[in-house]
Amino acid sequence: MQSIHRFFERLFALGAGLSMALVFGIIFINSLRRYAVGKSLEWGEELPIYLTVYGVMFGIGFAYLQNRHIRFTIVTDLLSDRLRRMLYTAGDGAVVLIGMSLTWSGIVFAGRRGDVEASGLIGSAKAMAEASGIEALVMLGQMGTYQSAIAVGGIILTIAAALRFWTQIREAK
Question: For residues 27, 33, 39 and 45, what is the CA-based torsion angle, rounded to 10 degrees?
């Protein structure tokens, strides 16, 4: 169980770190280009926003697995250790359900308007698809790719909460 926990912790950390590194790199290159050439990359303004959302979703899972999420403890500090542990276990179980609900709502959200074109990305996505012959690259210019971050975040939160829930159950024994 510990190795599964470590695997997902590393995966979520990698996802969050990679997203933030890409955001930094794109903004840095776009800034240099703007001042050196006088013009920005057409996708350089919009893509970092979507990458940040994915980074936050991975960061949520990473923080939850490490039990470093925000928690108000004014009331729980007054409880006995046993009662506090039971409350945290129930909370982790509730977050599993919340994560599954978030996944479902993300799927519905992306499915309803997923083919809407992202104005700053669609031109580059179509050009990449045309140049490479890979028609699927057009998806990078559609909102569904980025609206799916909600579903991905729900899956990540569900996995993190389920692992924490299982850990709480094992520690209670």
Answer: -10
pTM: 0.85
pLDDT in tens, 19-37: 999 999 999 999 999 889 9
Contact by Cβ (8 Å): 152, 57: yes
Contact at 8 Å (CB) between 67 and 112?
Answer: no
Q: What is the DSSP string of 91-119?
A: HHHHHHHHHHHHHHHHHHHHHHHTTSB-T
Q: Give φ, ψ of 67 to 5 degrees.
A: 60, 40
pLDDT digits (tens, 9 = 90+) for 42-83: 888 888 988 999 999 999 999 999 988 777 888 888 889 889
Sign of CA dihedral 62, 64, 65, 66: positive
Distance, in Å, from the CA atom of 144 to the CA atom of 111, rounded to the nearest integer, reads 7
Cα–Cα nearest to 62, from 161, 167, 169, 139:
161
Interior angle at CA 164, CA 173 and CA 104, nearest 5: 135
What average pLDDT is seen over the chain? 89
Cα–Cα nearest to 157, from 78, 90, 69, 74? 69
Q: Please state the domain extents for the chain.
A: 2-172
